[in-house]
């Protein structure tokens, strides 16, 4: 995988600008590795923190599941929505090897090719969510509908009940 000259954050920022995003990218010295860390750093409720999870589809390509912070992915629902035989969470080594992004900084976009993307329907209850921007110190605010447009993703019931 070819690396962007400005690193993972540069890849995300370049993609955001290409899509017409005019908002800021925020950087903090504190980590945003967990939802709780991000909530504290951003000053927003955990529900407004975007959790980006990469999953393996049929032991092959990756798909992206975007969730409201406290929610957990229901892999059976994701499997049905993606039309797959199997869906498993990608392990950290696979995520880094295939995307260049490390856990805690996995963004919703900025990939060489945008993975198929499912957006937790709970996200759409909030005017703005906060997403990682390529590392565990950088994040950006975005409206859920704008995020759906940017990712080409589908609004879906993908959270575990």
TrEMBL record:
GO terms for molecular function: aminoacyl-tRNA deacylase activity; aminoacyl-tRNA ligase activity. It comes from the Bacteria. Pfam families: tRNA_edit. InterPro entries: YbaK/aa-tRNA-synt-asso_dom_sf, YbaK/aa-tRNA-synth-assoc-dom. Keywords: Aminoacyl-tRNA synthetase, Ligase. Residues 31-149 form the YbaK/aminoacyl-tRNA synthetase-associated domain. The keyword Aminoacyl-tRNA synthetase applies. This is YbaK/prolyl-tRNA synthetase associated region. It comes from Aminomonas paucivorans DSM 12260.
